[in-house]
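user: Kindly work through both lines:
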Amino acid sequence: MSAVAPPTKPPRGVKHQKETSGLLMSVIRTLSASESNEQRDREKAKLEKEYKRSDQKLDELVSLHDQDLTQVMQLFGKLSARVTTSREKIHAVKENLQACKLLLHCRRDELKKLWLEGIEHKHVLQLLEEIDQLREVPSQLTAFLDKKHYLHATQLLVSALCLGEGSLEGVEALREVRTDLQTKKQKLHSRLLTELTSHLYIVSTHDVVALRRQGSGRDGNPLNSPFQHAGELRGFARLPKTRLALLDMNVTSPNTPSLSSGMNQTGTEEELKGVEEDVDAADPEANSEHFMAILVECLALLNKVPDIVETIKVQMQTELLAIIGRTTQQLLDLSQQPPHSLGARSTPLLLELLQTVFDQFRCVAAAHASVLHSFAQAADRHRIDVRLYEMPDVWSKVQAVLQLLLTDYLDIQNIAGDPQQAPASFSEPTSDISVYFARRRPPRQKRTPLFKFDYSSHALSINSYLKEQRGPSAKEYNETGQPQQREKLLVCSPDPRNITQIFIPLMKFIEEIEHAIGCTPGSPCTLNAFLADYIKEVFLGRHHMMVAASIESATKSVDAWRAITNPELMRGLGLSRPLLQSTVTVERCIQDLRELMQALPAYAEHFLSIICNILHNYRETCQAAYRGIVQPESEDKRICSAAWLKDEDISRFIKSLPNWTDLQAQKMTHHRRRPLRREETTEEESPEDIRQRNMREAEILATNLGEGGISAHEILSDVGQLKGLAQLQESMEWFSTSILLFASELPRASATSPGIQVSSEGIPAMPESSVKALMQLAQEFEELANTCLLVLHLEVRVQCFHYLLPQANNYNRLVGGVDSQEPDPKVLELSRVLVSIDEAMNSSLQPRKLKYIVEGLGHLIAKILISSAQYIDRIDERGIQKMCRNIFALQQTLTNITMAREIALDHARHYFELFYLAPEEILSGVMENGPQFSELEYMNAFQLVNRSQAEPNYGAINTHLSRLSDILGEVGITV
């Protein structure tokens, strides 16, 4: 057999593969089955080889784990020794316990006696210690109360009372101590109530009052109130965050208020643990909320929670009224006003009062919410069965107090006692506003009622209810229900119009109340309903009557259309010309209603309807006044200028002329509040354009008015009427501009977001139809003003026809016997009329309008005088001189009026100077210098010259006319 080499030792750290017994069993089976020795030897050698490998592996493993095995053996030895020692100790203890048990059993009676004596001595020492503690309680209690450590004081007092009424109840020497402790308990209860009330109504509002004192009374101006601006109505923004969080709350349970998440609530374990008091704090009242929680805990320990809750409910309205009284007195002191001089005070103090009161009421509500939370926790901890008041109860008292405040400042009691001012009932619907401005019959004398029901069961029950609502401290009603005379401390005089100053801040506060108590949109709070009833049933009715009376007195009097504004009022309005007093009165009523729209935005649409109604009625009144001037009572008489203006073609022609469009461009626009520049409207006219336009207008007027003449009853001969028409025009234009400006500033409700828009003045969005109706009325006033101005423009020209056309018909012959060097009487009368009209218009109309009226008169007069040649039978040199004097007189009059030379009248004078010439000389001048007049005017001149000759030659005149036609045809120019 060949020797088998031993297996190489594997490298250290290499893990050998796991070997099973399968190889050994395979070798044994092979040896058993082998037939030859050689085969057995080979298998044996293989087996020895494997055994050596296994032995080598075992040696390696032993060498690797030798140290661990040594440590294990050592630890096993130590543990075995400790177990043996412990068994020996336990055996010794058992033996000692058996010995002690035997000894105690032998001396049991002696030990029991000693134990009983020790208990008796311990109890005696405890009683002595309690007596010493009880005797020291009054001094300790006084020390705690002096430092306002009420929780420690209450706990000390309660424990002392338990001792005195418990184990020490039979000690006669402690009777006085027990009595003293009972007295101190009652005083402590009263003091806790006083402290809690003070923190609810005084300490909680201290910050507000301090801020008011710092912000008011400086430099003698106590009226710096944020309520002066509509955008600064949230006066409680300065309150602490904790108090602000308490304002938003709802009551979910009749007993326990559910406070908002903003309140500093603790966990259930902390609530059950109770309130802790820090005796090391420098100021126990620094945290008012925690201090009130301590007071509530003290009351719970004294078992006084139900009594205190009921007392707080009873005193709530009294304390709120006291806040108003203190605030009123503080404002009066800061404003340095005497307490009884109501007339010396103004309504801004009322705004300051309301702002301060609202801020304080918010703080009081926050304090009540905190106290209710503390009451609920204390009731749970101490298992007290009590029904707490709720936050809606607090807000209800706040509303009742504010209702009393409004009753005083709005003078509701006196209004209710006035049968002429007060409505029949607050529940009656508001009547149609048109009845206040329609023409009414004289009112009938009201009858005095025969019976009164002041002492009926219904009236007595109502009076009792009012007394209960007003509280025991506000005894405004006696037993019969009649108001008692009591001295009221007010910051301003009672006046129904005070509502205009306080409505917006009051409604903001009412919204806060309704949000706090969870009112739905369809169910307003009682204060909101009270305010709405007052405005609808009292304020609006009074204001309607006042406006109607003011407008009626301004428009229905005898001198209503002659009374004008005084200079002081003109300066105040920034006017250069006076207006009708009635217009200013109506405009002031409109401005007053506009201010009411800002002050009472909830009723803005109602006031806008009143404004439209006023404007509608005043428009009819003004149109009637206009018709009274231009439409005489007699049907067979008519004013030519007004009748002619009704012709649409003539009216359209006059309004199409540049002088009218230029006048309209110079108006003060209601959007920009500045005159439009000419380049924004029309182009500048040249002198030639002005001449052509004036000649064109003169031609149109001469064509329509030159035939038949104008009689005296067809003109406005009274200059006072013309002045009244001018004042009406100026007033209507100013009034329409004011209304258009107002209408343009009104926000309009869109279809997508109705009622959301608000103007810069605080007026809410108005319906589109109402705004359009307002603008339509303003345009109608503007149209009336334009009509008046056009009538004045035409009337001056119509009067020129009236005085100049009959002139030619009256004297017919300007020949012989004309020795007077004076102008014709009709010319002098026209000059006087023009001067009078100019004086009247100059004091009534603006210069631009006066310019529109008198501009172009020279061309018209020249046209009238030139066309009058056809009516003259004969004329000689003196007649020509007479006509030239007439023209010069009129030219001088117009120059004084227009402050410019009227060249058109020079043209008329040159026309009459033609009559000095023979027809041949006239024709020669036309050929040399060109035509200066129209062919018709030359024809009238030739015919008058021919008629003025001793023996008219009609054949020659036909020749002259034929030559004139040929010359003008050759020249190709017509004038």
In short: The first strand starts at residue 813 and ends at 814.
